[in-house]
Amino acid sequence: MVQRFLDPAVLGQLNSLDLVAKTVVDGFISGLHRSPDFGFSQEFAEYRSYNPGDDLRHVDWNVFARTERMYLKRYRGETNCQVNVLLDTSGSMKFASKGMQKLDYAKFLAASVLYLAHLQRDAAGLIVFDEEVRHFVQPSTRQGQLHRLLHGVAEAEPGKRTNLTRPFAHLMDFLRRRGMVAVISDFWEAPEKVIEMVSPLRYRGNEVVLFHLLDPEEIRPKLKHPVMLEDLETGEMMEVTPDYAAHEYRDKMTAHLADIDSRAKGAGMDYFLVDTSRPLDAALREYLALRTGRL
Amino acid sequence: MGFLTPWFLAGVVGVGLPIWLHLLKRHKSDPKPFPSLMFFERREQSSVVHRRLDHILLFILRTAMLILLALLFANPFINRATPKAAGKKLVVVAVDDSFSMRAFASGTSGESRLDKAKREALDIISGIPATTAAEVVALGGTVEAMTQQTNDPAELRGAVAAIKPSDSRASFGELARFTRTLAESSKMPIEVHLVSDLQKSALPPGFTDLRLAGDTTLILHPVGGEIPNWTVENVKAPTHVYDPKRVRIQATVAGFGTPAAKRNVSLVLNGHQVQSKPVDVPAGADGAPGRAQVEFDELAASYGPNRCEIKIDSADALPGDDSFQFSVERGDPKKILFIDNGRGNGKLYYQTALDSSTDAAFALDVQRPETAATMSLAGYALVVLNNLGPLPPGLEENLERYVNPGKSLLIVLGPASVAMTKVPVEGDPILPASSYAARETERFLTVGDIDSGHPVMKGLERLDGVSFYQAVRVDPSKDAHVLAKLNDQTPLLLERQIGQGKVLVFTSTLDNISNDLPVHGAYWVPFVLQSATYLGGGGAEQPVNVAVDSYVELRTGESKNAAAEVLDQDGKRALSLEEATNAKTYQLTREGFFDVKTASGQQSLIAAHADRRESDLGVIPQETLDLWKGTGAGGAGSDGSGGNGEQKTTPWSLSPILLLLLLLVALAESVVANGYLRAPAER
User: What separation, in Å, do the N-terminal and C-terminal C-alpha atoms of chain A show?
Assistant: First the structure.
């Protein structure tokens, strides 16, 4: 089957974030329909007898036509699933080696996940953070929720340094129900510290998915001659040689990624490395395939 | 040390450019943003150290390059002391051998000025130190080196003894030019001893021509002073005589610095005095000579060339200028063949113009073209074709045989000629669209361009007032010389060399139908006579009475078939065999009669006489001589002693060294910069 994935650069040319999300997810969903085994979180669970006061919109009229009894369709996620997206907007997220910033890619990814949740009628929420919580949208299924979420994503601007402690503490305050938490960040922090900060979310039965967003230049920097590098978060400067970047840095980076992966899995979290040079829908599809396989 | 153009040193400010590039701009290199330096370590990289070293070397080279460039433009020099040729000098002994040096020296009995000058020159040579090089030159119209530069007194004395009296006119300007050239080539001080009568007439027109080189010392040795002198200054006589009774010879007798006196003037013909007349020569006034004229009205010359002479009995110090030789040739009137078909009045007008001449004598023989085609043309000095149509068979070939050896042809084109496609013999095409305009239109052309220097057109000005109604349009070839053009650029008169001969083409008629030239006597008669004389001579009219040092023409064009010949006044052959076949001219260096036969066969007796300015024995004023000596002193106050062993400073340019340095630095800069650019890629 020939897949035509969406180039991030093409998505970057679309002005509207909801259009980006729809473009990504609708194509993705159409793919899902051809594969009935695929599913996200909210799945059909059972029929329940109609009680006065129930919303008539959920009555399964086909069943009523056959049996003259009123049943309501119930979904698994409808009652107990929340989807929260934590979007990192620290200074390091504005890095771009070829045109598109990591933050823009992260925004597309967040919008796509939120749109997908909206389609599944999950209560979706958003936290935009750097070292502080910059924007917060409480999870809800209310009308206009998607608009609020996408607006929050679109307004996100690169900030300062990364601090996962504050947003997670904030999230713990209003996290009442079990659900899924997607963290989109470049995780420029020691792996043990990242896992240490994220682990409390797991205690309440939440599924935690870590989207580790990295530019290919961060994973395999290619320098032609010695250059002066400037840290986007701290402003620190350092002269770096191509030789170091080609060998020692790559070794350290590989070890870092392996470490964070193993620690995340050890803590019962889903970890998924997203390369910003890859098409967004392809990345999402790959993630879901992995998730399904695990389930 | 100094700078010839110090303002260029301001270019050193350009050094700021590498300073900015290397020292200031380096710190402004843009850092590359990176998300996190978490996995990088701070350490000093050796490659960076090398790069900085490269920078420093490059900076030094670039700075040096700019400084050298500025210095190069500023043209620095240093003053180097050079010994003034270590006391060396070159002595030039110049002996004037001009015509005036034939005069008797004052205070001597029968010794000429030249003999005295040679004696003086020998005295000078005996005073020259053995280590000093010297050269002897003879000064006439040109400077003739009698020796190379030598230390041998015997050779120098021999050279002085070899100097013979000449008939040339001295030129001190030539001597000055010679010494300037010598100073430039010898690079040492020159001491010039001029032994001369210091004639005023030998000065060049401009004093700057007398300028001597910087280290030249002029020492004058005057021989002979200002003495009175009578001379036959000029003779005007016809070169050709046809009737002995119709000859007019006019002689001018002049006295330079002489009192009023009566002189007896004689006409000598072939060595025999034939007439004698007394003349009163007045005293000169205001520096001008006294002049008187004598006329002789008869010359019983025999057929052929005659050696004539005007003599005076002056008994002065310069007997050489008491006679003036000239040559006269007596002959029959020259025959002109006028080929005409009887149309128009061209013959009438042409004949009338020839008859009106007193000097030139031409006899006109009129023939029809058919007759001319078969007759021999050898006896004719000139053939005229008047307004002929297509020529009868044989005529053109006959004419070509006539012209090629050196004879001439005058072709007059008219209405009948339009039927031809080309000018006969001459060969230029007659344009088919030749608009031989009708006179009824009452429009006419005038002469636009004219070659007034040509013998045929001399004195004709621009033929003002002459109207040309009709002219045949001829397309002149490249080697045709257009002597006159109408104002619509139609050639009116053109000349072309055919073999050794000449063809003159007149594109309008000789009558007053196509133009009104024949009724303008002031132009018509000179035009006909001059063209007949020019063409009838079979070549350029050779002047037969010329000044010494003039050139006579021996051949025209590239023809080497025939040999020329010159017999000098002693009857000896003056040309070598090679010169006889190749030489184009011959210079008459002595007075007397020269029998010249040109390559075209024309034979003439040419009389050469000394330039009569040599007869003025007035000397140059002392102040002029002082000024002249001052030009070569190499600075005020120099007495021309030559200076022995003095130090002389000369500016020595450093530019070649700087240029070499700049080249080396630029090369090094290229190598270092190239290595610097390549290094990152290799690393």
Answer: 24
